[in-house]
Amino acid sequence: MSKNKILENSGWWILSILSLLPVLLWLLELPVGLRLSSLSAFSKSLGDVAGLCGMAMFSLVMILSARLKFFEKFFKGINKSYTAHHFFGGLALVLLLFHPIFLAYNYVLVSFKSGAMFLLPSGYWPQDFGIYGLFVMIITLVITFYTKLKYQIWKFTHKFLGLAFIFAFFHVFFIGADVANNQWLKIYLLVLALCAIATYFYRTLFADYLVRSFTYVVKDIKKHEDKIWEIEFYPKNRIIKFIPGQFAFVKLFSKNLSKESHPFSFSSAVGNPLKIAIKELGDYTNKIGNIKAGDLAEIEGPFGVFNFESHNNKKQVWIAGGVGITPFLSMLRALNNTDYNITLYYSVKDESGLAFRSEIKEIAIKNPNLKIIFWISSKDGFINANSIKEQTPDLSQRDILICGPTEMMAILKKQFLSLGLAEKQMHTEEFQLY
């Protein structure tokens, strides 16, 4: 098994092990029997474990938010690391909520008032920092999980996670208790915490100065069907190198747009003028048509592992839903009568949504091993695995690449699995910012 195969998708295991390691170090400090000798000791132990694991997870979540490209080796794509960021962020919040609740049990034994007062600021600043940090974290993550804000406002609220983390840092390392008494535990959490703080400064506070990006200039912008705009750029200095199917975070500088960084797929082939395709879907993208030739763009990337050449199986089915055609367009433009046997299903609501249809047909003419099926859901019904199998009888022998709305991809994956296809045959491009 290759090194890359071993690394693929191992990020979840690595995060889990790193999150639980404090428990092992904690257990080495005192015999388990003493920690479980009474209900009071058991409650304190639960509070300690919740706090230690929660702090480790919080640190790892902060590190993941740095969007470092080497994360892709462990998560099968930077987009998958954001899924882990979301999951472990929520779990860290739950653990850190239970941390003071379990510790408060011993105070409740004295009186309910004593228990309640333990959970409120008291003037003892190491403890108060923990309360303030938890309060800021709760507000920030509730906003993240349960509200729909404009992207730039949502992104701004995430800066407060750094404040919550700094509060938690002071609480952990000045409150005393297990961290102060266990040298290895203290060193481990300190290393994680300092890495988290460093990545917070790198990504959130000083990104404009520290994050490497490429400066491009808008050469042309053209509108296609389905409210999709394709922007062509030329480099101001350095040229970004990518493979078909990848994406980048693009910040456009135009008087008609706010200065936001958003993920967009490359639509051009390697070696051709750089292009990205953007669909009008929200407050920001609805104004894309207002940018002008000469506007600047900062491009950070490339990111992603969604590429047909990264799979050994040269018999493939590509499924695009709406604007999900973008990464496939980059791949199509890179085809040159290769020995890949590809069937592309391009699904849209009606024929007016078939962006780049003429060009896709021309590419198919030049590549006899490429078959194009335009799927019109208003006429053919929703695209589904059974229909695809009918038109592609050797489906079980192919790898399947899917890009489109999240719900569509989830349904198709479930249907393919029910047909007996292996999960390793399916590859999706799904990017969500949490």
Summarize the structure.
The protein is 49% helix and 17% strand. The chain is an alpha/beta fold.
Describe this entry's structure for a reader.
This protein is 49% helix and 17% strand. With 434 residues, it is an alpha/beta fold. Helix 15 (325-334) links the parallel strand 7 and strand 8 (341-348). Helix 2 runs antiparallel to helix 4 (39-64) and helix 4 packs parallel to helix 13. The longest helix is centred in the N-terminal third of the chain and has 26 residues, at 39-64. The mean pLDDT is 88.
- The total number of structural domains is 3
Q: What is the total tally of β strands?
A: 11
* Residue-averaged pLDDT: 88
User: In order across it, which strands form the biggest sheet?
Assistant: 4-3-6-1-2-5
Given the helix and strand composition, which structural class is it? alpha/beta
Strand content: 15-25%
Total helices: the number is 19
Q: Using the coordinates above, name the CATH class of the largest domain.
A: Mainly Alpha
Helix-residue proportion: 40-55%
Q: Describe the largest sheet.
A: 6 strands, antiparallel
| N- to C-terminal distance | 33 Å
What is the third-level CATH name, the topology of the largest domain?
Four Helix Bundle (Hemerythrin (Met), subunit A)
Shape: elongated
Spans of at least 5 consecutive residues whose pLDDT stays below 50 are none
How much is the radius of gyration in Å?
Answer: 25 Å
Order of helices and strands: HHHHHHHHHHHHHHEEEEEEEHEHEHHEHE
* CATH architectural designation of the largest domain: Up-down Bundle
